[in-house]
Design a protein that fits this description.
The protein is α/β, with parallel strands linked by helices and 455 residues long. It contains 11 helices and 21 strands. Helices cover 31% and strands 22% of the residues. The chain is globular and about 70 Å long. Keywords: Ligase.
């Protein structure tokens, strides 16, 4: 058995899920009272739900509450506070503005960026050790150098730097907008031990490194590859490509909305994100159906949209926030590392979900099928939308990049095989359009999954 992953709080090791819920329930009550007393927004939400603060004593009581916030609600909160209060952190801000220590926004790829990642110093002092623990499980430690290639400044991933520094590791933080030539130049100069970036950027560097530096990415001699921001190594073909190319283990990590710290283990077969710090929030314990909004029972194999409720946050705590991540939950012991807590596999984004002839389709699931055809395909794909989602008039149009010199007969045969694979798994048959390598733009940040022909 490989290294067993553990909770940040060792006293949780060996506890059942109900025991962890009971352990954290007093903290839930304290946090909800703080939000109720400090924010007009949350007080009004309790009123609208017909709930009294004292009604929520346990996690089960919390699960009965309706959603209090979505991204659209958060944007409305921000605009109201900008107009009326002179700041853009939202009417759900609970701490004084002059106590804010760090702010980071979402990417804004689906609308106006939200300042979800806004913290006081106390918030970061609480969160940073959990982020550090998560990275330590990947082998990051004192003296390591992490080439950190994300959009920096006022962006979400910036908070991870606090965890790196707490470990005594040196972040070599380069803004993703600097471009791949800059990343590779600094990789060559600084010889990092770890690379942190999106999976799509890690894949692109495999192509780019020999052209820019004259040697393959394996010659960087990394100890580990840390990916986040989009579905990646949960896809077996992507995991295999990355680990064979870089000659090091790859890890999937995330902290959506600064919540739910999770990390994948060293398993050859992806076992999901291990919830190593449930004291941060209730996210892994509270799921809703992404369509009906009804609560989904917490059981092994449950699929639903995560709903975030902070357990330790002063600045912009979240209460019943449906952030958009749809996950599948696993409650059994990890068969690889022996972790006994909750694990989650990302199914997709609720706002990326398409409905094709009554079938719910997530781009990540489509990509998993496409990646099965490497090396005939590059792995780059786009779903072409002729009208605004989620409903799609069939057939779903799917552009897929191919590699090599294939004649039309070979291309038609490959397109048919991909369409059949998608149909066999997802119960809908796309129209596959094969395009040559390089036809679809590469991105240093999140790679878009849609080509919006209607815009």
């Amino acid at each position: 058995m490989k290294k067993r992953f553990s909770y940040y709080m060792p006293e949780m090791d060996g506890l059942s899920i109900p025991e962890i819920e009971a352990m954290l329930a007093p903290r839930l009550r304290e946090q909800l009272k703080y939000c109720y007393d400090s924010s007009r927004y949350y007080k009004e939400k309790f009123k609208q739900a017909g709930a009294e603060l004292g009604d929520i004593q346990t996690f089960e009581d919390l699960r009965k509450l309706p959603v209090f916030m979505t991204k659209e609600d958060e944007r409305a909160c921000q605009e109201e506070s900008r107009q009326k209060l002179g700041h853009t952190f939202g009417t759900h801000l609970c701490a004084p503005v002059d106590e804010l220590y760090l702010t980071g926004t979402t990417s804004g790829t689906t609308g106006v960026p939200t300042f979800t990642y806004t913290f006081t110093k106390n918030d970061l002092d609480f969160l940073a050790p959990r982020l550090a623990h998560r990275l330590a499980l990947c082998g990051v430690g004192k003296g390591d150098r992490g080439l950190f290639c994300f959009t920096l400044g006022i962006y979400a991933t910036t908070m991870t730097l606090w965890g790196l520094r707490l470990l005594g590791a040196l972040p070599i933080d380069i803004d993703a907008r600097a471009g791949t030539d800059t990343f590779l130049k600094f990789a060559d100069l600084t010889r990092p031990t770890h690379l942190a970036c999106t999976p799509s950027l890690a894949l692109y560097l495999i192509e780019k490194c020999p052209k820019m530096l004259g040697y393959p990415v394996s010659e960087l001699k990394l100890k580990g590859l840390l990916t986040t921001g989009e579905p990646g190594i949960a896809n077996p073909a992507i995991k295999k490509t990355l680990e064979e190319s870089y000659q090091c283990p790859s890890f999937d990590y995330w902290s959506p909305a600064g919540h739910a710290p999770g990390i994948s283990c060293l398993s050859d077969e992806y076992q999901g994100l291990h919830a190593i710090a449930p004291e941060v929030c209730t996210s892994y314990f509270d799921l809703i159906d992404p369509i009906s909004g009804e609560s989904v029972p917490l059981e092994d194999g449950a699929v639903g949209q995560m709903v975030h409720t902070s357990l330790h946050r002063e600045a912009c705590p979240l209460v019943k926030y449906a952030y958009g991540d749809v996950v599948k939950i696993f409650l059994g012991e990890c068969p690889s590392c022996g972790f006994k807590g909750i694990r989650a596999k990302l199914v997709g984004r609720a706002d990326d979900m398409l409905i094709v002839k009554g079938v719910n389709v997530y781009p990540a699931a489509v990509r998993t099928e496409v990646m099965k055809f490497k090396p005939q395909v590059t792995g780059q794909m786009r779903i072409v939308l002729d009208s605004p989602p989620p409903r799609v008039e069939p057939p779903l149009k799917l552009k897929v990049e191919y590699q090599g010199n294939l004649d039309q007969r070979e291309l038609d045969a490959l397109a048919e095989k991909i369409a059949q694979a998608v149909h066999d798994t997802l119960r809908m048959r796309p129209k596959v359009i094969m395009v040559p390598e390089g036809d679809l733009p590469r991105h240093t940040r999140k790679t878009p999954v849609f080509e919006k022909a209607y815009e």
